[in-house]
């Protein structure tokens, strides 16, 4: 499995660095745990494999057996909404899409984050989007109406904390990956 790609969009460099330090710290912890296991156990550290059973609409089911644990993330940053849209478009052309985008709302002078999220959603209906803002420019209903697909959209107020970002990132990237595998399985079964 390729590393999950995460797009972080905010016009404040300190916020971008905060996201990066949280997500890269998570990578460092995993690396330390793996090294410790390899050094202090008499046997080689093993990779944990999870099995996910997904029920289909017709009560059929598929089993997806893949390594779900991540060995870090590929983090890409943008400071403007249109830059983010272009990065998503490019990632789709390269067949290496983003699984998750963290999007700020206010990013002058360009389009705001909600408009950027709407354009990104039009390009990629499967991307997980988390809108993080310190301002109440939009309420949740307005965001959902504009961006669409509320199953893949979250809306939070800043400030955020390390645990929140860590948990969201792990959950949403794994959800995206499982859904991708389910769609691939559906195509194979057609």
How would you summarize what this structure contains?
With 190 residues, the chain is α/β, with parallel strands linked by helices. Helices cover 46% and strands 19% of the residues. It has one domain: Response regulator (Rossmann fold, 3-Layer(aba) Sandwich).
Structure characterization notes:
- With 190 residues, this protein is of the alpha/beta class.
- It has one domain: Response regulator (Rossmann fold), CATH 3.40.50.2300.
- The protein contains five helices and seven strands; from the N terminus they run βαβββαβαβαβα.
- The protein has helices at residues 13-40, 81-93, 113-123, 140-147, 162-189; strands at 5-9, 50-55, 61-66, 74-78, 100-103, 128-133, 153-157.
- The chain has a five-stranded parallel β-sheet, with helices on both faces. The chain has a two-stranded antiparallel sheet with strand order 2-3.
- A hairpin with a 5-residue loop joins strand 2 (50-55) and strand 3 (61-66).
- Helix 1 (13-40) packs across helix 5 (162-189) and helix 2 (81-93) runs parallel beside helix 3 (113-123).
- The two termini are 24 Å apart.
Supply database-style keywords:
190 residues; 7 strands; 5 helices; single chain; globular; five-stranded parallel beta sheet; Rossmann fold; alpha/beta; two-stranded antiparallel ribbon
Topology readout:
Blueprint lengths: L4 E5 L3 H28 L9 E6 L5 E6 L7 E5 L2 H13 L6 E4 L9 H11 L4 E6 L6 H8 L5 E5 L4 H28 L1
Parallel strand pairs: 1-4, 1-5, 5-6, 6-7
Antiparallel strand pairs: 2-3
């Amino acid at each position: 499995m390729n590393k999950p790609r995460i797009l972080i969009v905010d016009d404040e460099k300190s916020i971008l660095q905060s996201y990066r330090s949280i997500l890269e710290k998570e990578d460092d912890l995993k690396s330390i745990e793996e090294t410790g296991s390899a050094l202090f156990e008499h046997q080689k550290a093993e990779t944990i494999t999870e099995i996910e059973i997904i029920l289909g609409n017709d009560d059929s089911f598929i089993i997806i057996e893949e390594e779900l644990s991540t060995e870090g993330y590929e983090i890409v940053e943008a400071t403007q909404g249109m830059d983010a849209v272009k990065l998503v478009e490019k990632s789709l052309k390269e067949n290496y899409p983003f699984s998750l985008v963290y999007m700020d709302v206010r990013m002058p002078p360009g389009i705001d984050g909600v408009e950027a999220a709407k354009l990104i959603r039009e390009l990629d209906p499967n991307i997980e989007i988390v809108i993080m803002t310190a301002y109440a420019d939009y309420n949740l209903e307005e965001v959902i109406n504009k961006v669409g697909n509320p199953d893949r959209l979250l809306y939070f107020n800043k400030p955020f904390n390390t645990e929140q970002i860590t948990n969201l990132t792990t959950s949403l990237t794994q959800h995206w990956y499982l859904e991708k595998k389910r769609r691939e399985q559906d195509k194979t079964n057609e």
